[in-house]
Amino acid sequence: MLRYATDWLAVYREQVNALNVYPVPDGDTGTNMHLTLQSVRRELDTCDEHSMPSVARAISYGALLGARGNSGVILSQLLKGFAEAIKDLKVVDSAALTRAFQAAQKTGYGAVMKPVEGTILTVARGVAEGARGEHIEEVLENALFRGQELLDQTPDMLPALKQAGVIDSGGQGYLYMVQGMLAQLRGEALPPAPDVTSYAQQQFENEEFGFCTEFLMSEATRPIEEIRELVTPFGDSLLVVGAEGYVKGHIHTNEPDQLLATVGRYGKMLKTKVEDMSEQHTEILGMAGATARAEEELPPSGLVAVASGYGLVKLFRSLGARIVSGGQTANPSVQDIVDAVRSVSAEKVIILPNNKNVLMAAEKAMELMEGRAVVIPTRTLGQGIGAALNFSANVPAEELRDGMAEAALAVTTFEVTRASRTTNITVKDGRTLDIREGDVIGLMDDELVQSGGTPEGSVMEMLERHYQGQEIITVFGGPQKTQEDLEVLAGQISGVYSGAEVEAHAGGPDLYDYLVTLE
Fold first, then answer.
1. What phi, psi does 515 have (nearest 5°)?
2. I need a surface site. Which of 30, 66, 227, 419 has the fewest CB within 10 A?
3. Which residues have CB under 8 Å from 114's CB, separation 6+?
4. CA 108 to chain centre
5. Residue 29 and residue 199: Cα distance in Å, rounded?
6. pLDDT of 390-413, one tens digit each?
7. How far is CA 166 from CA 152, 160, 201, 291, 477, in A?
8. Model pLDDT, residue 480
């Protein structure tokens, strides 16, 4: 049911995005809820389907790890409550399903510091109130009926919804999930995606909404309650939740760098995401009326790039790319890439995988697009930047391909991260590196070349061995590096390599201390 609900929500994802005006009109509620369910599905695909504890864990764990955005984090808590209610059962009957929806509502409300009516929480309450009946199908039908009643009332509960003349987007997304569960039970085929010709966000000014900042942390040294108190002063729309040693945070703030550096001192940062909500707002408005423009003349080329780290994401977007979130340890699916290609209005779309582990998925997506996409096999984010700098929407993709591929290979990329295991490795120049778990390691163009010392020392050692007179050295700091750390390292580099222009930016990729490009 949940697998099918993921596909069902995907059909209506853009429609849900178009309703999104609360808490900010950034137009990504449907996308975030779908990504959260996709993460659940990935866990379900590897769990023991004949064990209810295993299935329940997959639902809860997958939702937490994949939660995106305010709506996705709340959905993860609704699913956590649902999973807790079924984990000790042998079978889910109508009574158990009723209890599961009730537990979902309770956990969802409990996760939000200041619950607001007129949101997904209200609709979850309606689903829980309606979930009654002798048979599972009847439970789902009644849950949907009562959930829809409350969804229809949401404009009277939230002024922003009434102003825009829409129902709550998160609540609608939740009902589509339940609707998908019922459709699977009945054996119904997926419906065609509805045409979306207007976006509620068009009725709002492009204000400085701040930054939607998220993090996923393991091995936390502070309780969730203390971490929640720690980040509370940084902004609003705050959610900090956790399970099984993981802490997931979501907050709207104007100080993403400082927030992530502060939180990063109390655990191992696994994933971060920072979105400039003003830019998101502008992008969604750019998509408004896309259906109406479909018959107009399209630009020859579009660009899709796989990236993580908000500084890198911002750079790729500034170069004209539609972003697929992912990279090392968080590889996007073929469907993620296909969806991004389809969302770009262009005759042909160039895909930059930017990671050797994403290359195969990108090539498969290209096959599925049947001639509408081409892949440039970028294996690092640095190569992706080099290629993207040579992109032009006004030039046919086939004419761009060779030049972009050549530009990608002209960029050298250093990555500084930590070893995940203890080992001995002989590198290309004959040196043998003795590496312990947790040691700093340095990679050049995705090949190990350095180990030990500090992250800053790793960068300087790799430069000493491999700098070949490049003109520009760009440093991106990871989520646990402060602006001061970046400035100090940039100063060190400038002092030694005075002939190069040195740039330093926050927002490097997750799991990395530094990403450095040499052009």
1. -125, 125
2. 419
3. none
4. 21
5. 13
6. 999 999 999 999 999 999 999 999
7. 9, 9, 10, 20, 40
8. 77
Q: Tokens 């802490």 appear where? A: 247
| Cβ atoms of 512 and 477 closer than 8 Å | no
For 71, other C-beta atoms within 10 Å of its C-beta total 29
The whole-angstrom distance between residue 360's C-alpha and the CA centroid of its chain comes to 20
Residue 295 pLDDT exceeds 90: no
> CA-based angle 281:511:269, to the nearest 5?
80
Residue 327 has pLDDT above 50, yes or no: yes
Cis peptide before 396 (omega within 30 of 0): no
Q: What is the pLDDT, as a whole number, of residue 302?
A: 94
Task: Measure the CA–CA gap between 163 and 487, rounded to whole angstroms.
Answer: 45
Mean residue pLDDT across the chain: 87
Q: Is the distance from CB of 33 to CB of 177 less than 8 angstroms?
A: yes
Is the model's pTM score more than 0.70? no
**Which structure tokens are listed for 112?**
């939000």
Which of 408, 414, 434 lies closest to 422 in space, CA to CA? 434
Confidence of residue 293 (pLDDT cuts 50, 70, 90): very low
Q: Give the total residue count for the chain.
A: 519
CB distance 494 to 502 below 8 Å: yes
Strand-pairing partners, residue 433, are 425
Give me the pLDDT at residue 334, please. 85
CA–chain centroid gap for 146, Å, is: 32
